[in-house]
Every structure is written in C-alpha cells, then in structure tokens.
Design brief:
heterodimer; A: 3 helices; flat; B: 497 residues; Amidase signature (AS) enzymes; globular
Chain lengths: 97, 497
C-alpha cells in the first residue's frame, strides 16, 4: 500500500483543499490504486538516462525589457472577489497576537 | 446546400464569391445550436451577439473591399480553456464560474485576425483533466453518434460541436490526447500540432510542458486551414518555436503517400484493444500500402511506460499550476466571513471549487513531487520521457510517419468509467507518447467498428515540425476511404435524427 489515508489527508492540507472525511474515504483508495499503477515507471532501467522536463530543447527564453501597455487597475481588479481602495481585499493572513 | 452541412473550405469559397454573407452563415449555425445543443451540450456559452457583430464587420469589410483573413466569415467554436475578452472562460470549473478574462489568448487573437467568427465556448473536462467531459462542473457533452455515449475529452465539447454541425471548425487543446481522442470517437479530424508550434499564451495551464492547442474539422483540408491560421511563433509564449509553420495546407491538398515510409507501432495494439478498432485500423494500413506507401512494423519498447509516466508528469505540473486558484485575485471565494484567515478561505474555496478529478490530480502531483518520493516518481517519469523520445528518434530514422489506432476502444457510455480513474486514463493509451515527446499527431476517421457501429480513428504521428506529413497521409486516407464509403463517415451519425 504505497499511500495511506493519513498521507492523503496531509497532502490535501498542503494543497489547501479542505477534504471532508467522506471524500478522504473515497479518494485515498483511488489514489493508492493510481500510485500503484504509475509506479511501473520504476521497472524501467534508466540509470544514467538524463531527465526530460520539456521537449523543445529551449533554455532561458527572455523577452526584451521594454515598457509596454498593460492592464489598467480597473481591468486587473474586475474579477476580484473583494476590492478595497483599488487593491485586492483578502482575509487576514497573520494570526492575532 | 444547407449552410451548416458545408465544410469551412466550401463556406469560405461561397463567402468569397458573394453567394452568402457571413451574417447568414453565422445565423445558420446559431439556429443549429438552438435546435440541437440542448441534447448535445457542446457549448458552455453561445456568443450570439458578439458572433453576429463579428459577422457584420466581415460583411462590411467585404462590401468596402478591405482585406479579409483566410477564414473570413467562417464560424469557429473555442474550447473554454482559451481566454476571450468579453466572453466568460470557465475551464469547466466552478472555481472560474462567471469569470471574464481581461485579455484574449494568442489563438483567440489569431482567429479574429483570420476573420473567423467565434460562435461560442465549448464544454470540457474541468481544467482539461479527463477523457469524456464528465468532469465538467456543468454536466457532460453527448456524442452525436449516440447521445448516451461520451464525446471524448477533454476537448469533447469542441469535437461534439463539429460532429453535430454546430460549427464547421473548433479549437481544442491536447495534453495527453484531448484533441485526438474526442476527434476519433466523434468521427471527425483533430490534430495535436508540434509542441511550441501553437501558442499557449492565454491558455489556462494544466501541464505546461505538454499543453498544445490545435484544430478540429470535419475534413482534413478544413483542419489544415485552421491549423495554418492559428500556428506560428509567439513571443508571448516562452516555449513557442521560432520556425516557419509547416506547409500543412499544401500537404492536405497534395494527399499523396506514394513512396512514403509508414511504420506501424507494435506496442500500440493487441490485448486490451477492441477487435473492431483493430480490424478497421489494419484495413486503413492496407489501404495506405495500396496507395503506394511502404509499410513496416516498428517497435517502440518504452511506449508501454508512457501512460504511467504521463500520470506522474501531468499531475505534478497541474499541482503547481493550479496553485494560482487561491481565492484572492479572481474566481470563487468561499467562507470569507471576517473570522477565517486566508489559508482557511483558500482551502474551503478549493474544496468547493474543484471537482473530484482535479483534487485527485493535485494530490497525486503533490505526492510525486514530495521530498522522499521525488526521485522514485517524478524523476523516474522524466527519465522515461527521455526514453520515449529516443524510441521516436530511432523510429523516425527508419520511417517518415508512425501509425496506430487513435484510441483502444470506440466511445464508451456516459457514466461507465466516471468513478474509475484508471479505466478512464486508458482512453489516452495511444495518444500520450506524442505529447511526452512534443511531436505532431493527427486522428482521422477510418471507419465504424462492426460490433457497435461507432467511429474509429487512425492516428498518424510525425517528427516535431513535420506536421505537414500528417496531412499528406490523412488526406490520402480520407480521399480513398470516402471513395469507398460513397459519403463522409459523419453522414452516418444518427444520434440527432
């Protein structure tokens, strides 16, 4: 059994997904089955084989550092769940003293 | 002839000749959508007002003799993963329900520059994760061959729209097969271009090293027309390839395989494949041989590890990409009651905003990337990716293109695999290798499986930036097959009659 219910709960917390107990009961065995299947990659003799992260072979692509038009504050904030004084209003991010 | 039954090439010719207006063409397709989409559910948003405004602008330009793009007046349906200024973009997810992006994707811009009419946004598996559209938060799309069956996915809405004559053309994205698999099971043509050949700017990211926008059409020529219109270098995408667009349209017109070397991939067939899929595929290969191609069998020994490698790489990238849905700057926010802190609000929002498959993949990706497991899972999958690329390199040193069935089975029933992730993942068995290698591949209809009367796709794979070879082979096969059938395959689709 490569992954336990507790590990799934831990990963969900790290991923900021508030899974219910019922969902955990459902997802944990499915993830266990999936991980068992994908672990097949470990059968492949790959010693000394370089990893591929993407297939184009491009590295360090930068654009020229020149000013160009961008979104206005109103456009940038148009989809925001909450706005205050032309800023994104967010729930508190620090615990109170 | 009924406007919705015409191909994009035919519509374009009729528009150019002044036999029909862009407004009439657009209205005919909007009427078709109104008549059938309640049953097909290909669209999440029908852009009637903006489509008619675009059509009126095309008609006005034609009246005044202003220059017009190659798709002027031709409707195109766009997968709801591309940003469209002025139209919603949901990616099939509750977390983006109601979001209006502030800018156009490069593909959206290029469609507009080509004069295409954006007729609506199509349904998809949430964040492009799935093979059936059943993972859409807004309900599944239905296959026009049989409304109780899936239209494939994740670009299932785009494929269904084209197969149901709601649009002659559509745009999708292919990360593990999300264009070719729906094209195959809906009996239409779909291409995954070379990775980097079509821009990802404004495509909501699923797996950035794999996501590839591409075209759907009812004919190979139409698909090539759209392929050419959307492709080419884009400085806004750092993985875009700065090279000329392969001559796909000329290749589709050439439609000639004489002297071409075609390799049948040994590993993509046999056990687990539906017999009718294998028999139609074998007949298509014989047909290509009869048209002058030299057919050999080619082994790609690491392809059997492509599926497991993909289901480590794609979820790993997804777990990182989907971190942006944090309820702070746009999209859904749940539980912001003044007492909960930001992390609690994030966790509640992501719990309610994401569906089961997205959660599965985020957690799977987080696992594969976590310290202690990284080397055994993600690292190993990246090495397998190298070996798959080497298999392709070795194969393409012997043959010009590779062929296989596009999918192991025809369209399965809605609900059949909905809660069995591993069974669902098998739908992409044949398509994943080309995504991992970043090369080009197409699916073209090659007949109906005798046991269920549903479409079978022939997949053709070509080296990166040799996308034109796909169209040579697919167009040659299409011409010969339609000759045998006496009509296009899709004429036999009875789901809506």
């Amino acid at each position: 059994m490569p992954i336990t219910r507790d590990e799934v709960a831990h990963l969900a917390r790290l991923s900021r997904i508030a899974l219910s107990d019922a969902e955990l009961d459902h997802l944990a065995p499915q993830l266990d089955q999936i991980i068992t299947a994908v672990a097949q990659v470990q059968e492949v003799a790959a010693d000394g084989i370089p990893p591929t992260s993407h297939a184009t072979g491009l590295t360090n692509v930068y654009r020229d550092d020149v000013p160009r038009p961008c979104l206005s504050p109103a456009e940038a904030l148009a989809g925001a769940p909450a706005v205050e004084q032309q800023r994104f209003r967010v729930p508190r991010i620090l615990a109170e003293e | 002839m009924e406007l919705t039954r015409m191909t994009a090439a035919e519509l374009s010719a009729a528009l150019t000749a002044g036999q029909v207006s862009a407004t009439e063409v657009t209205q005919a397709h909007l009427d078709r959508i109104a008549a059938v989409d309640e049953r097909v559910h290909a669209f999440l948003h029908v852009a009637a007002d903006s489509a008619l405004a675009q059509a009126a602008a095309v008609d006005e330009r034609r009246r005044t003799g202003a220059p017009l793009g190659p798709l002027a007046g031709v409707p195109v349906a766009v997968k709801d993963v591309f940003t469209t200024a002025g139209l919603p973009t949901t990616c099939g997810s509750r977390i983006l329900d109601g979001w209006h992006p502030p800018y156009d994707a490069t593909i959206t811009q290029r469609l507009k520059q080509a004069g295409a009419i954006i007729i609506g946004k199509t349904n998809m598996d949430e964040f492009a994760m799935g093979s059936s559209t059943e993972n859409s938060a807004f309900g599944p799309s239905h296959n026009p061959w049989d409304l109780d069956r899936i239209p494939g996915g994740s670009s299932g809405g785009s494929a269904a729209a084209v197969a149901a004559y709601e649009a002659p053309l559509a745009i999708g994205t292919d990360t593990g097969g999300s264009i070719r698999q729906p094209a195959a099971v809906c009996g239409i043509v779909g291409t995954k271009p070379t990775y980097g050949g079509s821009s990802r700017y404004g495509v909501v990211a699923f797996a950035s090293s794999l996501d590839t926008p591409g075209p759907f059409g009812r004919t190979v020529l139409d698909t090539a027309l759209l392929h050419e219109a959307i492709s080419g270098y884009d400085p806004m995408d750092s993985t875009s390839i700065d090279a000329p667009v392969p001559p796909v349209l000329a290749a589709a017109r050439q439609a000639d395989v004489s002297g071409m070397r075609i390799g049948v991939v040994t590993e993509l067939g046999g056990e687990g494949y539906q017999p009718g899929v294998l028999s139609r595929f074998a007949e298509a290969v014989e047909l290509l041989e009869s048209l002058g191609a030299k057919v050999t069998e080619v082994s790609c020994p690491h392809f059997k590890y492509a599926l497991p490698a993909y289901y480590l790489i794609a979820p790993s990238e997804a777990s990182s990409n989907l971190a942006r849905f944090d309820a702070m700057r746009y999209g859904l926010r749940v539980g912001d009651d003044g007492r909960r802190d930001a992390e609690e609000v994030m966790a509640l929002t992501r719990e309610q905003g994401f569906g089961a498959e997205v959660k599965r993949r985020i957690i799977l990706g987080a696992y594969a990337l976590s310290s202690g497991y990284y080397d055994a899972y993600y690292g190993k999958a990246q090495q397998v990716r190298t070996l798959i690329i080497r298999d392709f390199d070795a194969a393409f040193s012997q043959v010009d293109v590779l062929v296989s069935p596009s999918t192991p089975t025809t369209a399965f029933g809605i609900g059949e695999r909905a809660d069995n992730p591993m069974a669902m993942y098998l739908a992409d068995l044949c398509t994943i290798p080309s995504d991992l290698a970043g090369n080009a591949a197409i699916s073209v209809p090659c007949g109906l499986a005798p046991e269920d009367g549903l479409p079978v796709g022939l997949q053709v794979m070509a080296p990166a930036l040799a996308d034109d070879r796909l169209y040579r082979v697919a167009a040659a096969a299409e011409a010969a097959l339609v000759g045998q059938w006496g009509q296009p395959l899709l004429a036999g689709a009875k789901g809506l009659s």
